[in-house]
Each structure stands twice: as C-alpha cells, then as structure tokens.
Amino acid sequence: MTEHPSLQPYVDAWTHSIDAIAELVQPLAHSEWNRRTECPGWSVRDVLSHIIGVETELLGDPRPIHTLPRDIYHVTDESTRHMEVQVDVRRHHTAAEMTSELEYTVIRRNRQLRNEKRTPDAKVRSVLPGGGEITLETLLRLRAFDVWVHEQDMRRALRNPGNMDSAAAYIARDILVHGLPKVVAKRAGAPNNCAVVFDVHGPLEFMRTVRVDAEGNASVNSSPSLGPAVTFTLDWETYLRLACGRVKPEAVRDRVKIEGDEELARAILANFAVTP
C-alpha cells in the first residue's frame, strides 16, 4: 500500500484496470491486435502502446528518440505528435513483445506505487503534452481514469465488454461530470436561470443537474429539477463515448432521448466531449 491511505483508492482502481487489460490482450490473435478503436488512427496495439508509454515515463524512463512518418493523418498538432511517438515506436512490435513489456512495466509501477512516500498534495510533473505540474493525487486519479477509458476503447474494439461499473468507472464518472457546467454554460451557451438534467442508466446509474444562475455561472449536483430546459436520457456507455469524444452525436442519436429545448440540446451534444 502507499504511505497515504487517501491515494490507495486510485492505485487500486488503476491496478484493477491495467490487470484487466493484461488479461484482455494475452490471448489475442494477430489480427485482433490490429482492430481499429474509436481513438482516431489507433488500433488495439496502439492504445496499449500509449498506456505503456505513459507508465514508463512515470517511471522516469527517457522518451524514445523517434521521427514520426509524415503521413500519419491523425497527428495534427504538437499535442498529438507528442502522444504519437510512444505509439509509433511500438507499431511493429510482436504480440509477445507487447505483452512482455506490459507485464514488466506493471511490475515496476506496482513497486513504485507501493513505495510511494510523497504526500497527496506533492507537486509532480504532468505527463500531458506541455508538461506543467499537478498534485500527486490528481496524477493518480487521472491515471486511473485514463487507463480505464482505454480499457473500454479496447473492449469495444474487441467486442469483449466488461468493468463498466468498476471502481475506476466511478472515478471516470466524477471526472466527466465535473466538466458538465463548462459544456452547458460556456460552450453551448445555455441561458441564465435554467437547468439541464442528465439521466444515465445502465451498469452505472446516476442523475445530475446542471444549473445556470442569473449571472451565467453553472454548477452541477444530484438534486432533481422540476422544470429543466432539457433532459437527456441515455445509457452509461453512450455517455462515456460522447464525453470522451469517441463518437459523434449523430452516430448515437437513437440512443439519446431528448426532452425540452431541441436547439439547446443539439448545442450541448455538439460540445459534449471534455477529454483532450
């Protein structure tokens, strides 16, 4: 266990997801490694390469010295270029090489996390493009979130669903819900003094209401609204895919029930993605 108990739930959630990924990829046939995921340009192999790459950087390993091909269409800026290096350098690795590196990386990270003595508010380097510092607690929460989201990317590609209500799923829910006020008030331009309800069902059920006050400031809580401007009813997987930018609203329109202001609803769905 880590020295600070408040960090342990994030470590446990990360461990559960990354172990699930290891179990998921172990029996894959060669063709399954190349299955396309909803991450632009990334296969199952590429998603795993991304996960391994981030974790090795957290271990302090140097980033690969690697020149990207010029014809990778989904690399559009410095942020995507930064992320692609760890992926492209492993693009021709065999299944055995991928699973072996994952196993070794997880062993090293587990050891590192067990010996973690820094306080939750200690400043650490962010692994996101552009760097910067965040707290250790924030880093571990985001790692649990990121690994679980990518676990689900891989599961959808492999048609092997699971863990939609795991500990990391609840962490993901809270992170995604945290972005709702900005989506509703700032990006979609919801009018002052209105409420928007999100009623989510499935393996993980919840209802959240975004309220925009008289000054245009928005907040989110679990209290119901008697007269919302819009109510969205959708399943948890669809919510996840929309909030993570994995799918366009038009592609899942039949899975989202809308009641209320259609124009506002369309604006919210068009701006629903909150992940980078």
Automatic annotation (TrEMBL):
Mycothiol-dependent maleylpyruvate isomerase metal-binding domain segment(s): 15-154
InterPro entries with a match to the protein in the record: DinB/YfiT-like, Maleyloyr_isom, MDMPI_C-term_domain, MDMPI_metal-binding, SCP2_sterol-bd_dom_sf
This protein's UniProt keywords: Isomerase
Name of one Pfam family that matches: MDMPI_C
SUPFAM superfamilies, per the entry: DinB/YfiT-like putative metalloenzymes (SSF109854), SCP-like (SSF55718)
Gene3D superfamilies assigned: dinb family like domain
An MF annotation (GO) of this entry: metal ion binding
Residue ranges of every copy of the MDMPI C-terminal domain listed in the record: 171-265
Domain of life of the native organism: Bacteria
Record NCBIfam families: maleylpyruvate isomerase family mycothiol-dependent enzyme (TIGR03083)
Record-given protein name: Maleylpyruvate isomerase family mycothiol-dependent enzyme
Organism expressing this protein natively: Streptomyces tardus
